[in-house]
Structure formats: structure tokens, C-alpha cells
TrEMBL record:
It comes from the Bacteria. The lineage of its organism: Bacteria, Pseudomonadati, Bacteroidota, Flavobacteriia, Flavobacteriales. Residues 1-22 form the signal peptide. Belongs to the SusD family. Pfam families: SusD-like_3, SusD_RagB. Its main location: membrane. Residues 318-493 form the RagB/SusD domain. It is found in: Cell outer membrane. This is RagB/SusD family nutrient uptake outer membrane protein. It comes from Chryseobacterium endalhagicum.
Length: 494
């Protein structure tokens, strides 16, 4: 794997503890970048924090390793990722839904701390660049401001997903901070937080228009557009979301993930699967190297049996059996999962494919890829009445997912796909797009966002260790986190 490590070269020396007014009630220090650091060094600190262990405020918890920690949280909340064994017990609180209804749960506090650390860190960069209302004049300052506001918006977006039952514009939601030295704040409404998200990302799209990032570990204009598309879709502003999702597809040159890249092929030995940031369809991720110091305590250490991992010793995390059974036998994605526990050994794996072979993690983290915007564009087009275009986009994606039975395949004309998609309309079309989203993005942290957008109800398969065959709607209290009791006790506005 080619290694282009820019962010990691900053090292952990950037991650210095500082104190602010917010720390008293959020228990979330700013980015923990040195006060004397430059804005770019502080930005690099945020990027590193996304892959660093302990950023949720713990020293020992093996589910505390940055953004990918919370991708697993989301996949389990959606019920699409089944915890199938509890040998060591990580994630039992989420899988059993005990943590979701318990404000004193360490699980909820970790997510709360992490995202507010990102926010406070981004606020620190924004302050250095002149503050929220400043209009940068130099290209360098514009690009740093665009990155900081994109990262802040992304953190607020995830807080809204994890700590609210669903979109309700007037409902009190979470505290909102736009400077690193703010006093304790009351809850803002969801609409107020989304307004900040939209403002941040709209400005970032402008500021990042000519930004040529050093590597895909950094955000750029396409990432800002992608996050804004997700935000609009979460609010039900589907036409606006569709425009942005189509721009991500059409304007940045990211190709669809190919059939060969989707899955490791035992017959041909082709090294497909999701482990390399150089995959052309990947838009945003992190190029993990030995210098990052990841091992058992990592996303790979929780999910991949070819890494020294919990997944290799009984704490299996597999696809929900009901979802697996819904995948067509002619769909290549079905082969991503193996064994009776349906673990993703052919989608996510260390390329050496030796059980427990990867001790120091060098397989990469994925945050975003272009394929998800085909699905988001199709979903939001269908919801806004543009069904013909939604079907066209879906067929482009599924054409490279389903086996084509014709002896001379014509791109975009797979008859299996046409037979599946063309007859659908209305609710049936929307449900099929939602199902395809769950299949395509399994294990990538996006299923929970789709569950919330579609106000879906899920029935767990019988391969879950807890709550087998139980049906749960998206807004059930077991499907999102309560604001941590620590915040309630320490914030005088609650």
C-alpha cells in the first residue's frame, strides 16, 4: 500500500491538554492542540484526533478510538450490525440497548466528549483566523477556514443524529458553541443547529473551491458538499440534497467502486475490499501507518478477523441476518460476508488474510466514498418526485453490483437490474433504495443516518445476541442516546 503520511508526521506532539470554560461542564478539552500552534497545525491535530485512541475521554476503553468508534455505534444502533458474541463484552450496552436509555452510560459520554472536542478545536482555528464572521482574504486562510468550518459542521451533524430521535425543527436539542472560550450554553433547537451547519458548509464550499489537498485525509470542497447533502436530506429538504449529491457524483472525478474492488475473490485472488485509501472511489479517509500506533484498540481490532481482534475470538460483528437474506443471490455484495456468523471477511480485511495476522494496523479507515451519493441522490430524487432520474442513478450503481447474465454486457443495461428497478414507484421505490443503501454501506457508519432519514422501523434478525427478532422504530428511546448525566449536572442551563 502506498504511504503518503502528511498528517501523521505532525505526531502526537500537537495533542496537548489545554483548559477552557467549556471543560468544566462538557468535560471536553479543546482539540488539545498547543496554544502556540499555527492554525494549520491545529487542523492537523483535529485530523489526527479522528484516529487516535482515548479521544472520547478514556484511557482503557477499547471502543474509544475516534470517528470509527462512533461509526460502529451507528451501525449497531441501526441494528444492521449484529453483535453475535459477548466473550469480552465491548458494545454489549448498545446491542442490548441498555446504554441508549441510560444517561450515566460511559458510551454516551464518549460520543458527547469526542464531538465537542472536535467542535472546540475547530472553534479555536476559526478564532485564530478572525472569528466566525471573518471573511478570509488570502487563499491559505480561506482554505483553513473552510476545513475548520467543515469539521465543525460535521461534528454538529453527528451530535444531532446520535442525541435526538429524529428531525424536529423546534425541538430543543444540544448546546451550540461557536468560540473556544464560550460559557455554558442552553440547548439550541435543532433548526438553530442545522442553520449553523448549513452556514458553515455553504461558506466552506466557497472557501475550498480551489483547494488542492495534500491527501484524502483532509476535507475539501467535495466533502463539504457531501456533508451538506446529508444535512439537507436529514431535514427533509430533498431537492436541495439531490442537487448537491449529483454534484459530488459529476464534478470531482470519483468513479464508482468496481465489481473487483467490492469484494475479495477467492477464485481469482483479486484483492478487492475496503482497506486502501488509494481506492479511487474513496473521497475521504485516513491512511493508517505504523506511526499511528493502532493495534487491538481500533476499528480493525473490533471488526476484522484477520487483525488481532475481538472479531477473531468470538465477539463477532456480522450483518443482520434479515438484511443478509434480503440480498439477491445475483448480487456480488452477498459474497462480502462469510460463515454462519455472517462476518465481513471479504469486504473488510487485512490483505495478508492470516487470522489475527495484523498486529500493528496499517489497513486504512474509510469515512466517505462516492457510491453513497448515488444512493443519496436516488433517495432524495425519489422523495422529491423525480423518480425517472432516481431510477437511472440507481441502475448505474447496481449495474456494477449484480451479475449480468448477458454474454456481452452493455454498461448500464443489466437486465437483472432493470427488472428490479424499472417497475418500482412511490413508497416501493423509496424502500428499495433504502434497502440498497443498507446493503452497500454496511459497516461504514452510514446505515444509521439512513434509518433516521427514512423514519424506518427495523426487525432484528435471529443472529443478534440480544433482542432477537424484536421490532424497533427509528424514534424509539432505544435508538438514540440521552444527553449524558455529566452534562446535565454540570451545565447550569439544563
Amino acid at each position: 500500500m502506498k504511504r503518503i503520511i502528511v498528517l501523521a508526521s505532525m505526531g502526537l506532539s500537537l495533542l496537548m491538554t489545554t483548559t477552557s470554560c467549556q471543560e468544566e461542564f462538557l468535560d471536553a478539552a479543546p482539540t488539545e492542540t498547543a496554544p502556540s500552534a499555527t492554525p494549520q497545525q491545529k487542523l492537523n491535530g483535529i485530523y489526527i484526533m479522528a484516529v487516535q485512541t482515548g479521544t472520547g475521554g478514556t484511557n482503557l476503553d477499547h471502543d474509544d478510538f475516534g470517528q470509527k468508534s462512533y461509526d460502529i455505534y451507528g451501525d449497531m444502533l441501526s441494528c444492521d450490525m449484529a453483535l453475535e458474541g459477548v466473550t469480552y463484552g465491548w458494545y454489549t450496552g448498545i446491542a442490548s440497548t441498555d446504554d441508549q436509555v441510560n444517561a450515566t452510560s460511559a458510551t454516551t459520554l464518549k460520543a458527547w466528549r469526542y464531538y465537542y472536542k472536535v467542535i472546540n478545536a475547530a472553534n479555536d482555528v476559526i478564532k485564530d483566523l478572525g472569528g466566525n464572521d471573518a471573511v478570509p482574504t488570502s487563499d491559505e486562510d480561506k482554505q483553513m477556514m473552510g476545513q475548520a468550518k467543515t469539521l465543525r459542521a460535521n461534528a454538529y451533524f453527528y451530535l444531532l443524529q446520535y442525541f435526538t430521535p429524529g428531525f424536529d425543527a423546534t425541538a430543543p436539542a444540544i448546546p451550540m458553541y461557536t468560540s473556544p472560550d464560550s460559557p455554558a450554553a442552553p440547548k439550541s433547537t435543532q433548526q438553530q443547529v442545522y442553520n449553523l451547519i448549513i452556514d458553515d458548509l455553504t461558506k466552506s464550499i466557497d472557501y475550498l473551491a480551489d483547494f488542492q489537498r495534500a491527501n484524502k485525509g483532509m476535507v475539501d470542497e467535495s466533502i463539504a458538499k457531501g456533508i451538506l447533502a446529508y444535512a439537507y436530506a436529514a431535514m427533509g429538504r430533498n431537492a436541495e440534497a439531490a442537487v448537491l449529491a449529483k454534484s459530488v457524483i459529476n464534478d470531482y472525478g470519483y468513479p464508482l467502486t468496481t465489481k473487483a474492488q467490492l469484494v475479495w475473490n477467492a477464485d481469482t485472488g483479486l484483492q478487492g475490499g475496503f482497506n486502501d485509501l488509494n481506492t479511487k472511489s474513496w473521497m475521504w479517509g485516513f491512511d493508517i501507518a505504523v506511526v499511528n500506533g493502532l493495534d487491538l484498540v481500533s476499528w480493525w481490532g473490533q471488526v476484522d478477523r484477520f487483525t488481532y481482534s475481538y472479531a477473531s475470538v468470538g465477539d463477532y460483528k456480522g450483518i443482520d441476518k434479515n438484511l443478509y437474506n434480503s440480498i439477491s443471490a445475483t448480487d456480488n455484495r452477498k459474497t462480502q460476508f462469510q460463515f454462519s456468523v455472517l462476518i465481513p471477511t471479504n469486504k473488510f480485511y487485512d490483505p495478508k488474510r492470516v487470522v489475527q495476522g495484523q498486529r500493528q494496523v496499517t489497513t486504512d479507515y474509510i469515512y466517505m466514498r462516492v457510491d453513497e451519493f448515488y444512493l443519496l441522490a436516488a433517495e432524495t430524487l425519489a422523495k422529491s418526485g423525480q423518480e425517472a432520474e432516481a431510477k437511472t442513478i440507481m441502475k448505474k450503481l447496481l449495474d456494477v453490483r449484480y451479475i449480468d447474465p448477458t454474454p456481452t454486457p452493455v454498461p448500464g443495461a443489466n437486465p437483472t437490474v432493470a427488472a428490479l428497478i424499472d417497475p418500482l414507484s412511490g413508497t416501493a421505490l423509496q424502500q428499495e433504495i433504502y434497502k440498497q443503501t443498507r446493503i452497500e454501506l454496511w459497516g461504514e457508519g452510514k446505515s444509521y443516518l439512513a434509518l433516521k432519514r427514512n423514519r424506518a422501523t427495523v426487525t432484528r434478525g435471529d443472529n443478534h445476541f440480544y433482542l432477537k427478532n424484536v421490532t424497533i422504530p427509528y424514534n424509539d428511546p432505544r435508538m438514540y442516546f440521552k444527553i449524558p448525566q455529566r452534562e446535565i449536572d454540570d451545565n447550569p442551563n439544563f
